[in-house]
Structure prediction request, 310 residues.
Amino acid sequence: MKPKIFIDGEHGTTGLQIRSRLAGRDDVNVISIPEAERRNDQMRQDHLNEADIAILCLPDAASRQAIGMLEGSNSTRVIDTSTAYRTDPEWAYGFAEMEKEQARRIAEARLVANPGCYPTGAIALIRPLRMNDVLPADYPITVNAVSGYTGGGKQLIAQMEDKAHPEHIAAPHFAYGLSLQHKHVPEMREHGLLDRKPLFSPSVGRFAQGMIVQVPLYLDMLNGSPTLADIHSVLADHYAGQQIVEVVSLEESTQLARIDAEELAGTDGMKLFVCGSPDGGHVNLVALLDNLGKGASGAAVQNMNLMLAS
Prediction:
């Protein structure tokens, strides 16, 4: 019998992307609620409890409500795409390449918290350096990032695309989260293995999908004063053998004049770059991904596949 997959919130941006990714598959049975019934809590509860895997594409409060709808004796497994459970130790963190055993943890878990798009890029760069004791736990990390506007969901998409929208945004690029209190910060700190809260400065560009995350570091403030080659080796060794995460060669990274935020749009991959001048004393770590690919819907489907294979 085909496993039943229920996407709670399938009519939102992330849910629609997941639904599209599953549309051509004959190995799963996707059960749905018509859009007109999306607020029918009884129907939601019934579907949540009959599903083999429920993928929650909801705001935090609605995700918590959905978890409350699960009957104690049922065996429904859950992938939650909100921020509600990303630092909860009872939930497996759904970044399969984060470390060697993470894919197995996801595969065996009942509860999986899908990562945020920005944290996926930041943690991909930071965690290997922490695990190898190259980056001090109390280093004052700064994360600068730009995302495609689809990361803001239907409301931001309408504001960017509809010129008649009462809150239309005409700017080609804008910064937000100016108070440095973005909801992704706890996730970056927790899974980046950081003692100090990182400073996160996000922004949005006038392109639909794509993302660049940058983490600049002073080499002489790192343990052992490593070189660019040392930093690159740590990342390359950490992700060796991975198909989704690629560490671009040091030669190519240091010769780049620019990185296009849309290069990986429409894909589920991620590229990591170690940029900087060999004698400059600094390194700029850069992650490139699609905010709806490896950053959201693609990651959710990847986690679903791991769970179904267990």
Notes: The radius of gyration is 20 Å. DSSP finds ten helices and 13 strands in the chain.
